[in-house]
Structure formats: C-alpha cells, structure tokens
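pasting input
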Amino acid sequence: MAKELPGYGTIDVPKDRVVPFGAVTPAPVCQQDLFQTSNWRIVRPVKDDEKCTRCLICYLSCPDACWVYKEEEDVMEWVNNFCKGCQICIQECPSGALTAVPELDFPDGVARLDKPF
Amino acid sequence: MQAFDYKYQQLEPVKSFKRVPGPEMYVPGHRTCAGCGPALNYRLVAKAAGKDTIFIGPTGCMYVANASYLCTPYAVSWIHAQITNGGAVASGIEAAFKIAMRKGRHAGPFPNIIVMAGDGGTVDIGLQAMSAMMYRNHKVLFICYDNESYANTGVQTSPMTPYGAATTFTPPGKEIPEGKTLFPKNAPQLVIGGHPAVKYVATTTIAHPLDLMNKVRKALSQPGPTFLHMLCPCPKGWLFDEKMTREMARLAVETGMWSMYEWENGTYKYTNVPKKYKPVGEYMKHQGRFAHLKPEHIAKMQAFVDEKIKQVQRPIPVAAAVPGKQ
C-alpha cells in the first residue's frame, strides 16, 4: 500500500504491516512469526540424546521457549527460529548433554536474515 | 444479602516438572535481551495462569521490549498502562468484569487479572496506584518483577537497587566511591504493613520455577488482592554473563541477599533457607555493577544482609487479625 508522507514523498508499506485502526494487533497463537530472533545468536546449543535425561530443566529455564518436549518420540526438540543463544540451558543442564557450538560451523548457520524486520 | 458468586478460578498446584501446563501464553518471538530474567519470569507466570487471563503491563522492560513494531508475544489479553497507573487500570477492569457478571453479560469464569509491573512501577512511580488498588480490595494479583533498576531506559537507579551498585545515575567516582549509597526498600513489607485487605504476599525467584508457579496459582485462587515479589536478574543492567541468569537468582538466595517466604493471614513461612549462608562476595563477584567496591563497602553490605538474615530465622510477628481466632 502506497502511503503519502508530507515532506518525504510516498513510501511502500507491506500489507501485513499496515497499522489497523486503534492499533489493535492480532494475538499470536504458538509463536510470534513477525519477530524472529534467530539472527541474534553466535553460538547454538547442540544436544546429546544419549546423555539427556529429559529432566525438563532446559524447558523451564529458556526465556524464549526454545526447548519443547515431544512426548511421542520422547525427545527434546530445539526451536531454531527463536533461540537467541543465551546459553542458559547449557549452564543449567545437570547431565552435561548440551554444548555450545559456534553458529557459523553449521551449513544453515544464520548470519543475517534476507530482509530486516 | 447473600454474596454474589463470581466463579473465581481455583487453580490446582503444579506437582512436578512433567505436569507443568504445556501451552505457552507468552510465546517466543520478542525483543528482550538474550538471557533476560524478566522474560523467563513472564513466561512462567503466563504458563501458570493459563488462558483465562488478562495482563496489565505498566511501562517497563516487559512493555517496551515486548510490544514493539506491532507484534506482541502475548497469546492472552493484554493492555498497556502508564507506569504510574498499573493498579488503577487493573481496578477498572476488575470492577467492569464484576458488574458484567452481576448483570449476566459474562457467563464464564472470572478472569485472572495480573499486573506485571517492574520495580519502578511497583514501589517507586506506581506505588500510589498499587496501594489504592489494594486498599479498595480488588481481586487483582500484583506482580513485581524486580530487576533492581530502570533497565529499559538505560539502567538508572530505582528504590530496589542494592547498596553499592553502579548505575547511570549512581556512577562511582572520587567523591562517592561506592556508587549508590542508599539501601533498598522492602517491597513485601510495604504491602504487608500497610494494606489490611491483602491476605497473601510471597517472594520468589526465577531459579525456582515450580515454587514460582505454585505461588502464582495460590495467589490467583485468593478472593482478594495479592502481591508477589520476584527476583529477575538482568544481564544488561547487572553486567554479568547472560548464561548466569538463573545462577544469579540462586546465589541471591544462598547468600541471603534475597529471602523466599510466603505470608498468609499474618503467618510467615520461609522456604529454601540455606543451612549456612555464603558470604555476599560470592554473589557480588560475578556482577560488573559491584566491580568497583572496596572491602569496607562489601563489609557494610554484609552487615546489612546479616541483619536481614536475623529476621529470617525469627519471623516477624505482625499484629494482623486472624479470622476465626480471638
């Protein structure tokens, strides 16, 4: 949507970023996809399933809810899109199942997203 | 006249990590710093409160960092209040729901109304609104997430900042070598001492997630105003490594800088009291805000903490009337 700004000319606002009337925004359901934080991190936690005891301490110590327990497979799952790389889970893990690995060692390592937020 | 039944929610305590409610009400995708203590605290509180909840967010980190650029991480209802009036907005919402239920316009359970205020929104700028809300006996849970500074505007000193901390308003220098010279307020005692309508006050930290969730659930099941004080270490404001967030909260309890207790109808119940307290230096050495302190300043802090520990071992008798006892 093209918008007229006095003194600046026209700017292009993507349709999903137009401010609705009264600035009431839709609530997220499971995750807020408009604000992905994966490009913040410089290290990522890598788990060792042999050592992991499924004590759920990482699940309850992550500020970004990046550890999810999958009950069917009995395994902890890491959420790639939102981990900020704060390493609280690595520090708290009682069995030493998590290690910090530099982000750029991975082929899908996120250095920067394609477009800014 | 018979009292109207507002169908207050009665939440069951969480027994173990496996039984923690699954759905996230404070979802990933927010702008808080990596390793943010308040964000972890918010997530645990929202998890414990469940889906029938209304959050009131007075200005602070948890408003500024979460509700920016038209995206919020709240899966439940949320409203922004000014930093001065978190309690007043909550009172209005609670009164409106009560009237709607009396008139039959709202059938469902009474929502959990929670104010998530920072330490500035609780004991400094927002004190009058909180006090008025508690005086008028609204059924609101007021939570103070205490990161011991005004962190979102650049770490200024607040009344909860401990003695000796360096902030941008209390920089250590030649004239005042210790940085902050004043000792912090005691927020739970402020509530307990001055508000007869409040029947439940508790303190907790983010390093004890089950304790935190159970205290939130217990507070939400009370029929009147309640207050929770939570320690949320802030890696940016306290200048420690971001992975130490939970470790800092644990050390605060182990050194006696923070005491965990529950106050219910005039009786104290202390939990997580260590057998032997560590010296406060253990807690301070990790934090850059205390890096400039000299041994005499740490000794002064230790004396302050020792005084606090004495109160822990000897619970303060408070002359509050216990119902049903004379």
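fyi Residues 1 and 14 of chain A are 6 Å apart (CA to CA).
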